[in-house]
Specification:
The chain is of the alpha/beta class. The chain is built from 16 helices and 12 strands. Strand 7, helix 13 (319-328) and strand 8 form a beta-alpha-beta unit.
Length: 454
Amino acid sequence: MSNLISSRPFWAWLILFVEGLVSVSLQIIFIRQLTPFVGGDVNVVGIVIGVYLTALSLGYLRGGNEGGDIKKLSKNFLFSSFWSGIFMSYSVISLWFNSFESEVYAGVNYVVLMVYLIVGLFPVVYWLGQTVPIIVGTLKQDSASKSSGMTLGVNTIGSVLGAVCTPIVLFNLFGVAATIFICVFMLGLLYLITSYDSGDLNKPLLMVLVLSIVNAYFVNVHFSNSKFVKTNAYANYEVEKHSDGYGNHVSILRLNESAASVIANSETMGYTRYMHDFMVDQLGYVEHDILVLGSGGFTFSLNDKTDNRYTYVDIDPDIKDVAEKFFLDFNIKGTFVAEDARRYIKNKKGQFDTIIVDLYSHRLSMPWHVTTQSFMKNVSEALNQNGYAMFNVIEEMGFKHPDNRRLHNTILSVFDYCYINPLYTKSMTYANVAYICKKNDDQALEINIDDRTN
């Protein structure tokens, strides 16, 4: 039975607070780490929360049968630190999901997702869920209702802090991998406190703790630092630079496992080059206002020798610094606004000659709120009378995926006249499809019909 914890409630409140903080942080970390592989839509988030709450409820039930067994609690913290350091790591998650990846755009494999959550997230939350009832069992001097109220209150305060600080503070200050290491380290401290209190502190278990912390550092922090130039709440940024077999110096900026921008010999390529050339060569843009929603590598203006005015909008405030320091190696041409695309464009009536929507460049992480008809109408309203909207969409060839068909239909429901150009080769299952759409005028649509009489 506990001595220090039962005689000095401060230690009980500290354990409950830290456990609540770490437990919710783990849930947020899992959602963030899974995003490059399964996206972050409401279905995925709902499944993660469902697994989390199921494990938590079973942990409560199990902990209620343990009384005030602090020795059991200390081992739970030790197991949790070891397990979470492994299964939250990007390298392990990547290895798992890439083993089941198909070249066909089949969407999220929910079976693969569920198996990983049951193996990786469920045990940790189950162990940590036992904390509250076990701590209640040590507070014999208080009534059951008072003990339960205090423990749940303190634990919930820690959970709230974890929910707020993890994405807003920890991810942005230290990165995702370092946040995982901080969580593992805090669980290690909880193990030391509880094992000391129960008299179960011994060398073999201390070695397991040291192994957990060292492992968490190498498979998370060290791996992340070697692979990514930056990680935050929005993306993992990876930059690859190499020379191809033709002597071209190629740079690739990847966001969450998806190539966001590619340049060769400091020249833009692919759909960005196609859209830029259309604006300059076909439309004759020289001193025009161009809005780009979804900054990527800021390559739309890279080779523009005119006086066109570019405004880039992206929800991630770090993307400009990453592109300038690691990808472009020089300052962007244009201005940058860190804001959600839909919120930014909502009140920009008739301000732009062209709006480029580059928000659908990841096969799984397509933000729903910028795929709706209301958003398309906001885009149309922000164009001047003779303006053009350009959309870059990753699509499986042949419109086989329902998401592709819905987005295609949504664009055409607002823009009547669109050039649609799939930029693909024979070896590609899915590719960039460029939509170039003219703002509608007020004239009724004219069509040819067989029974026309005039």
